[in-house]
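Need tokens for this chain, all 327 residues.
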Amino acid sequence: MKKLFIFLFTVAIITGCQKDEKHIFIPENHFKKFQTEKIQIFDLDTLSFKQIIGKNGTKISFNRNDFIISKNKKISLELIELYDFNEIIYKNINTITTDNELLETNGVLYISFKSDEKEIDLKLNKKIVVYPAEGKLLDNDVFKTNTDSLQNIKWELLKQVDTIFPIYKGGGVWVSTIVKKDSVDYFKKQNEKLSKFKNYNSFIKSKYPAYFLLANDDLGYINIDKLINIKDKITFSLLDKKVKFPGFNIYFTYDKLKSFIYNSRLKDDLKFDNIPLSGKTWITIIGEQKGILYYDKIELEKGLNNSEIILNMKEISIKNLVSIINN
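Here are the structure tokens for all 327 residues:
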């Protein structure tokens, strides 16, 4: 009898655990299968210099001497180029800063130099020169993140304190050098002592089209963005009256902006504070139960500030969900 009791008690515990496991929420990127941009790997072997060109037009100047690396160690570059905004959505890459300011992206890059599958470091004060695809940098800024995780990622402005400047060495020889921006006037005066050439701006623009510089701590994910001037923000709560879902994947999108905010939330954590509004702003809520996807899509307006929005979740296929998130 005692053995039977222990057996039944054990079965009850297992059954209870299995029941609870069904209600565990694990954030999921439902759009992962639609990603087409793959990581590009460039085998640099023991080359000293090389200009690397990605399939979507990104150029990176490589100089082996800039890295902390043993003489015979081989180097490789891992590069991801995301210039298609849909690809950024499919990877759940937010366009929001560490100060919760909304960004509009013109592309995301991933840059990592490795040896024996381990990341290698640049030497002190050395920089990598990156030329994004034509027309992508324009007047945008460059932002960096300190994490490889794309869950709820946020961006920090990368201050460009250095620049490329031609320094005249005499005898018709010019050497392009990375210098501090506040020292450019000094180098101009030095050049003028040796050369009559003064048209630096047009020279630099023709020889060095739009570029940015990366220090060792800047490598990884890079976002080419501009800050959006937001006038209105709203705070609201979502209510799932039927309480069918343990949690939700939530997407904020904007009709006329390449901007995107992703959140994953448990069912008891559905209050959202200071969500930026710009033109038509949408929230798409995705829940899953027994392998079936459900969604609701709601236009956010100032009139919904401090309100409680009741969800009307509807069954949907993943194929149709993609068209909804993109429109």
